[in-house]
Amino acid sequence: MSFKARGLLAYMLSKPDNFRFYLDELVHHTTEGKDSIRAGMKELERLGYVKRYSVKDSRGKIMSWEIDIYECPSLHPELGFPVVENPTLITNDNIITNDKRFNKYIDFKNIQNPYFETYLKHFALKKNKQHMRITEEQYQSISERIDELHSFGVTSEEWEAEVRDHFEKLPKSNNGNIIAFLHAAPRRFDVGSYDKH
Known about the structure:
This protein has helices at residues 3-13, 23-28, 34-46, 114-127, 136-151, 156-169, 178-183, 185-189; strands spanning 21-22, 50-56, 62-69, 88-90. It is of the alpha+beta class. It has 2 domains: 3-98, no CATH class; 108-189, no CATH class.
């Protein structure tokens, strides 16, 4: 990762959850121009630190773009970073989009996965709120990763101990997304890389 992209990521992650700012605002806080910031954002997206979603009007026209930011690369980075005339809106967790592919969110109350439930419990204790919404596709990937850990012999007690440790050391600026936690799981549980993507 370039120094520019690393600095851009650090600045965005330093903001609180749900903090919103625009491309012009980013430019205001750096000596870089818009093209340079866009290049840095493209790099972060390519590496999986940024996921980009379109915000459309009722006719399906793209009005603006919203971005999720991850401390660790996400499981399924969306490629492509088109330039639009409208300002780029950035947020740390919420997704606002009319794209039906991203509107199928999981109802956490229906989840019967004890590992996931443990994570949600510690998230709520640390953040004093519910975990950000996840799509069905994201939950499928999360479930697969948890199943992989289980197949490597990671017990529910070991899982909870690592989750507790994770939240005890979690900086306030980190949104605590389980996807980032699972990305670092091979190192945490010393089970080797099992990323198939």
